[in-house]
């Protein structure tokens, strides 16, 4: 807008003021101030805003509170917003900013109340709808967040950042196809948006569109060669091979002082994958070890705590406990839990089952862990899970099973059964039996050293904090075997052990065994699992889109001289392993 048009706007504000309409005049002065500021005319902007504040005293108070908010003191800002709202309960600016401050303080219910009141008063307030979307995302309600972002975009369709936020919400809502469309919309308005490019790459990988995913990742690297997450994302495709030039570019990026620790970790892991593909296994292990050591400093893990909680679970869930509670829980047979250590074949098992017409393949669902944490959470005596399960009655256990099914409903389609592939659920098998006694549990197992090395060379997006130190990894594996031995002893027949080596060596019989355990009739599509088109989020997404192959069997031997301490640590477990590794 030209200076003359801004002047016309200010003249109209003056006329509105003369006609006795101070609020309309204030709005015009505010708009004029923003336009002056955007054009770099700071003195004119200050003058226009001064008139705005003069005509709207509440606006000045809101601005003062917002300054405290921007200075990092949301609690002090809240006092200012509330002071305005006591005078003017329908002040949408104060309501919106109060909602944002409450969201930052994780008071989600109160924040939602304030933001919904703001959009009720001003339904065309795009920023307030966007803030509501951000709040709902923080509160882990991605479907509702997506709806709020859509309302914002209906009012401001050219806003790249809102399209980006919508895409992120759709990813969490398990709608990768719609997320891809939203990322593309963001890029249409802002082609050099690195977050949208990498987000698009991630969802295209999930959907199996590898060539397009690689293209998106490469465009992101053209804009930011030091973007470590993108280098690791290419490596994490597993089937991607880095060129010599790309290896050189990664090493050059590491030489720059500006690179963050997070980015360095990602590039070091990517270089590990690059040199492993080049069959320089010593160099590959060096890069993996360097990345793991750096990442270990960035995460919190206590192996003593892991052992202690497992001790408590074993003490709680014994044979007598289950005998006293026979027939308890919700009797729906729908869930099929796949547990084990990561990188041990769980995605392959999920892909086989998801190829069946009666089964929905979902993902690694967090709901069971959240239910466990909720048991006893608000008890005044401080008793928590697992000991708190002792005081659950039959109705409580049925309600917990029903709650799990309700919480997971949004991840499911029309199948009678569904998979939950959260590997870390293995300590919670007793809880599964208690609240969902007809569920199925499959233990995806692989040669112990293949399993450990596979986890060690994987940079996880979140969790699996035990995997960045070889000794801690070995100890965690021992705890895993200890827990699985306990469940097989205490709940005989409740868990099926599915060995990756057996699946590779005798595919059809092992798949039939898997389906029989789940109570599913045989379907040929399960043998042709690699042809099944579905979204796969995990690191094995490209591998399970290929037929089973033997190339990864015994891959730990490439790094054997580096794994000698772990081999000794797991000697008794290795003696029990029935397959050649």
Structural class: mainly alpha
Supply the CATH class of one domain.
Answer: Alpha Beta
Percentage of residues in helical conformation: 55-70%
Q: Mean pLDDT, nearest integer? A: 89
CATH topology of one domain: Rossmann fold
Question: Within the largest sheet, what's the order of strands?
Answer: 2-3-1-4-5
Percentage of β-strand residues: under 5%
CATH architecture level-2 label of one domain: 3-Layer(aba) Sandwich
Backbone CA Rg: 28 Å
Within CATH, the superfamily of one domain carries the name P-loop containing nucleotide triphosphate hydrolases
In whole angstroms, the N-to-C terminal distance is 71 Å
Uncertain spans = none
Please report the total strand number as a whole number. 5
- Number of H/I helices: 29
Largest β sheet strand count, sense and barrel closure: 5 strands, parallel
What oligomeric arrangement do these chains adopt?
A: single chain
């Amino acid at each position: 807008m030209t200076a003359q048009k801004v002047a016309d706007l200010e003249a109209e504000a003056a006329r509105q003021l003369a006609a006795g309409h101070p609020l309309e005049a204030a709005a015009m002065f505010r708009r004029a101030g923003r336009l002056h500021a955007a054009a770099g005319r700071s003195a004119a902007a200050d003058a226009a805003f001064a008139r705005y504040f003069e005509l709207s005293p509440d606006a000045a108070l809101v601005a003062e509170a917002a300054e405290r908010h921007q200075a990092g003191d949301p609690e002090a800002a809240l006092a200012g917003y509330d002071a305005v709202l006591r005078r003017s309960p329908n002040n949408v600016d104060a309501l919106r900013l109060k909602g944002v401050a409450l969201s930052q303080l994780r008071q989600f219910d109160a924040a939602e109340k304030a933001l919904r009141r703001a959009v009720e008063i001003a339904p065309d307030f795009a920023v307030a709808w966007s803030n509501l979307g951000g709040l709902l995302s923080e509160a882990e309600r991605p479907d509702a967040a997506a709806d709020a972002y859509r309302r914002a975009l209906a009012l401001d369709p050219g806003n790249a950042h809102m399209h980006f936020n919508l895409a992120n919400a759709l990813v969490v809502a398990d709608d990768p196809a719609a997320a891809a469309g939203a990322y593309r919309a963001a890029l249409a308005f802002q082609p050099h948006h690195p977050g949208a490019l990498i987000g698009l790459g991630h969802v295209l990988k999930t959907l199996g569109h590898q060539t397009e995913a690689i293209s998106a990742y490469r465009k992101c690297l053209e804009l930011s060669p030091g973007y470590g997450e993108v280098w690791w994302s290419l490596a994490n495709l597993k089937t991607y091979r880095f060129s010599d030039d790309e290896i050189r570019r990664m090493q050059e990026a590491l030489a720059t002082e500006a690179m963050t620790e997070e980015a360095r970790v990602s590039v070091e892991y990517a270089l590990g994958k690059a040199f492993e593909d080049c069959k320089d296994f010593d160099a590959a292990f060096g890069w993996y070890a360097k990345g793991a050591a750096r990442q270990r400093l960035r995460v919190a893990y206590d192996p003593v705590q892991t052992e202690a909680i497992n001790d408590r679970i074993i003490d709680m869930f014994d044979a007598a406990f289950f005998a006293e509670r026979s027939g308890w829980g919700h009797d729906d047979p729908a869930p099929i839990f796949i547990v084990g250590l990561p990188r041990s074949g769980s995605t392959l098992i999920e892909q086989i089952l998801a190829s069946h017409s009666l089964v929905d393949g979902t993902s690694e669902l967090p709901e069971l862990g959240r239910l466990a944490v909720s048991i006893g959470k608000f008890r005044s005596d401080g008793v928590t899970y697992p000991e708190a399960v002792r005081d659950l009655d039959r109705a409580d256990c049925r309600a917990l099973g029903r709650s799990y099914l309700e919480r997971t409903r949004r991840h499911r389609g029309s199948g009678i059964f569904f998979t939950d592939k959260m590997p870390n659920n293995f300590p919670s098998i007793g809880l599964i039996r208690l609240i969902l006694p007809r569920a199925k549990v499959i233990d995806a197992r692989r040669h112990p050293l293949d399993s450990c090395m596979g986890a060690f060379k994987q940079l996880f997006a979140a969790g699996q904090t035990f995997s960045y130190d070889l000794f801690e990894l070995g100890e965690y594996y021992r705890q895993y075997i200890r827990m699985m031995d306990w469940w097989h002893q205490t709940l005989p027949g409740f868990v099926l052990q599915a060995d990756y080596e057996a699946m590779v060596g005798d595919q059809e019989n092992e798949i039939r065994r898997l389906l029989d355990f789940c109570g599913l009739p045989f379907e040929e599509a399960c043998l042709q699992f690699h042809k099944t088109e579905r979204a796969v989020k995990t690191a094995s997404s490209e591998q399970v889109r290929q037929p089973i192959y033997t190339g990864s069997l015994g891959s730990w031997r490439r790094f054997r001289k580096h794994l000698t301490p772990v081999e000794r640590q797991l000697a008794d477990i290795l003696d029990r392993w029935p397959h050649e590794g």
